[in-house]
Amino acid sequence: MLNYIIRRLLIGLVTLLGITFVTFLTIESAPGDIVELMLWERPDATEADRERLRKSLGLDKPMVVRYGLWVRKLVTFDFGESIKTGEPVTTMISRHIWPTASVGIISLALAFLLSIPIGLYSAVRQGGFFDRIMSTNLYMLYSVPSYIIGMVLILYLGVKLDWFPIQGMYSDNYEELSFFGKFADQAHHYVLITICFTAGSLAYYSRFVRQNLLEVVQQDFIRTARAKGLSEFRVIIHHAFRNTLIPFVSLLGLTLPFILSGSVILEHMFNWPGIGWLYMESVMSRDVNAIMGLNFMTAALVLLCTLLADIAYGLVDPRISHD
Amino acid sequence: MTETGNEKSTGFWRTAWKRYRRSRIGMLAFFFLIALAAVAFFAPMLANDKPIVCRIEYTQPGDKTTNELYFPGIKETLRQIPVAGHLFTAVPPFSRMDFKFKKHFKPGRDWAIMPPVGFSPLETSQDRLQGYSGKHWLGTDELGRDVMARMIYGTQVSMRVGFISMGIAALIGLCLGAIAGFFGGWVDMIISRVIEIFMCFPVFFLILAVLAWFPPRIENIMIIIGLTRWVGIARLTRGEVLRLRELEYTAAARALGAGPFRIIFRHLLPNALAPALVSITFGIAGAILVESGLSWLGFGVQAPNPSWGNILRDGYGLMATTPHMIPPACAAIFFAVLCFNLVGDTLRDVIDPRTKGRGG
Amino acid sequence: MALLSIRNLSVEFHTEEGIVRAVDEVSFDIPRGKTVCLVGESGCGKSVSAYSLLGLVSPPGRVVGGEAILDGATKQDLLQLSEKELRSIRGNRISMIFQEPMTSLNPVFTIGDQIIEAILSHQDIDKGAAREKAISMLKRVKIPAAEQRVNEYPHQLSGGMRQRALIAMALVTEPDLLIADEPTTALDVTIQAQILELLKELQTDSGLSVLFITHDLGVVAEIADEVVVMYASRIVEKAPARELFASPLHPYTRGLFNSLPSLGGNADGRLQTIEGSVPDPLSFPTGCKFWPRCELAVDGCRRAEPLLRTLATDHLAACDVLEGDGDG
């Protein structure tokens, strides 16, 4: 078991290095002078500005050296300063983590908790009314991109019916509200965007649970369990589902990249000041340091989650933990 | 002897197709996709300000008057075929010159068969922000352009991005995956690490990081999407090849002295192709989603060219007052993705030998 | 009174290609304390017959006729019981073990947990006592270091040991009948011998009845008291083991015996086979299902399906040609 963990960690380290390389490359891939590209929206920039920018980006040094310097800074979590605001990138990122993280965690928990009973019931009553209705609906939900769900929600629940606020995390009068008022106001703002994040994962997880359970139920040990005289409930919930739980747990870890990816558009749409929104802003202003820092950080985060998912898998599957 | 690997393939595909035909939903989705592809290809004959075919009396500068058949719509459609298209249109009757057909058209004297939607997607007019009407079936946008025409041309974009980007991804993914699975050892280690690295980057993050520096032309979008999506296919192919490698006929081929690449390409890949095809189908759906997402963010197809994504975006901006552009774009994206998903799912069920009926 | 009396058991499968009658009017008894071997080739219906006794036949299969009377404080027809009633019989009065020991145990639970579960679902004792029972049962099936093994997971045991554990799990509730569906087919020959030896011992100790399904005549010779031979959904011969081995009557049974390679080698050095192959259940031959492959076949065989007739003491066979009972 320990072997397994150590091996995964070592491989992870190599991957991390690879991530820095790819991140660096995405910036290097720019055709032409990067400074020109960054400043083309700023016609007032002088030659001196250009030189300054070049210096600060270390463009006077060869690529390999720049890469080395950048990686060295990374180790100390120094992502440099934002070209746009001059603020250290790490500080900027830390300000924007919570909005994305909070929505991500809530939606993940919701999707997890809801998908299990849905998937279970659909599998047990395969072909029944519930299964067919849910299958179709979930399938459609699964095919709709999250930003279209967002758009529909904003259009109907937000604008037409005005049930939920559609921009930002707080209302304008936030400061004046009581403690509970503040909480309610925030919760109110969370609703729509959380639904968008949850919808896609919910559809996917439910289908996964159903599919996997149906496969597990074909296995020989389920036949043994039935032959033992166990109730169907116990056969499914105790014997079958426990086997489904194993891949399901590692599935959770793998959803992070999709949440982050979706956050770019959704946060832009809802004016939600999270990581995705920050990234969008950085890309639009060609803020090199911020782009690199965000890319590296998100990829490293995903790597961490994948590793944790793998370790969790090893812990939960006795075939790996007891060897 | 070397034909055995491929023999399995041809019989396999035929039975797979027979099984596929049994699924009504699968067939429905499949036909919808064919229709979509047809719309994409025949777009210049479906929505255009030029007629499909017409006979116009035209007086050229220099006083030469001609009265001939012209095929502007068909010509434009054929031109889309790379290389061959230009050859076709170099010969008469297609080679006849173009001119502003609408301007020179005189009803009564001339006749023309116009496309069902008689507007070009780029043609602006004074009828701005109209709702659905008899003249403009899906209304007009803020520059008076016909939305239906734009939607039709948007289909072209989505289909092209979907297929070409996944084509690139498939090419890279199949080769690298097969090589990794077959050779194992260091080669596999390296390729697997590369796959793992790419899987850590959220799709939009990586694509935007690159697109930030490039002019947002559709070719760049297709390439970058292809370069990021190959990993899923590579992983799958690798798994399949690993599995197939252990089967006897690989050993048999080896024993007969077949070299590694021959084994990979003639024997293993055709059999590993089936699950990869499923992945590719889902990938096309994903590519369409990415493209429309990029267009929505402003990094995709740029104005004035239409794409479902930027039509959606324009509609979103006008949401409070004239939201008529939103439903068609939403519906198009949704149904296209839904159908690709359905086809992929049905394909998966058809290929998986385990889902065939079980005995008692 | 036999422990289990099966009469006219019939099972059908309604498939896309047609209705398959997998078991046709099968009748035999399982006496107390004895081993009955159900013999036949793959697809003859022997497994399905066994599954139907415990209501384990899954759709599109259905029991369409017959009765299976289980003797006891009250006589019960297994085929008429509700699912709930069946559950109290499964793993309790009648246990079943299957062919694939490698995959018949749930990989995510310890074997101890799985055995204890079998005990607790039928007996009202506390967990500690159940655990003791489980360990002592593991010892009885000769699993070494039972106290440690009980906490191990299936993947940590070899195939032979898993089958022993499965036997332990089946017998820990002291059932009256053990149904064994080819439990040794997937094991090495030496392990197979050990398992058979074990079963015989357990049977002598506890008066257990065993319904043993197999296609291997060697196994039958080893453990059977009574033998029931099936072919293409029907019983073709029924006899005590000794009697059957001394003089097999039905042409199919004779064919099976003849095709066994003998140590000295056959006269001409070739292996004997039964010509032809097992018929497709969707298109059984008319009349006697064996006639296309039978060396004794006459015209009458094609017309009427032969019934089981007593041809010697306790020895029945379904053949109209034997004893000159054919056409003309």
What do these coordinates show?
The complex is a heterotrimer of chains A (323), B (360) and C (328). Chain A has 323 residues and is mainly α. Chain A has helices at 2-28, 34-39, 47-57, 63-75, 89-124, 129-143, 146-160, 179-216, 220-227, 232-254, 256-270, 275-284, 288-316, 318-321. Helices cover 77% and strands 0% of the residues of chain A. Chain A starts with a helix and ends with a helix. In chain A, 39% of the residues are buried. The mean pLDDT of chain A is 83. In chain B, strand 1 (53-60) and strand 2 form a beta hairpin. In chain B, helix 7 runs antiparallel to helix 8 (185-200) and helix 10 (218-245) packs antiparallel against helix 12 (260-297). By secondary structure, chain B is mainly alpha-helical. Chain B is elongated and about 80 Å long. Chain B folds into 2 domains: 49-114, no CATH class; 148-355, MetI-like (MetI-like fold, Orthogonal Bundle), CATH 1.10.3720.10. Chain C contains 11 helices and 12 strands. The model of chain C is unreliable at 324-328 (pLDDT under 50). Chains A and B meet through helix 1, helix 6, helix 7, helix 11 and helix 12 of A and helix 8, helix 9, helix 12 and helix 14 of B.
Going by helix content, strand content and strand pairing, the class of chain A is mainly alpha
| Low confidence ranges of chain B | 1-7, 355-360
Please state the average pLDDT score of chain B.
80
What fraction of the residues of chain B are assigned to beta strands by DSSP?
Answer: 5-15%
Biggest pleated sheet of chain A: none
Q: What would you call the quaternary organization?
A: heterotrimer
What does the overall shape of chain A look like?
globular
Q: First CA to last CA of chain B: what distance?
A: 37 Å
The count of β-strands of chain A is 0
Number of domains of chain B: 2
Labels describing this entry:
heterotrimer; A: 323 residues; mainly alpha; 14 helices; B: 360 residues; 3-stranded antiparallel beta sheet; 3 strands
Short description:
The complex is a heterotrimer of chains A (323), B (360) and C (328). By secondary structure, chain A is an all-alpha fold.
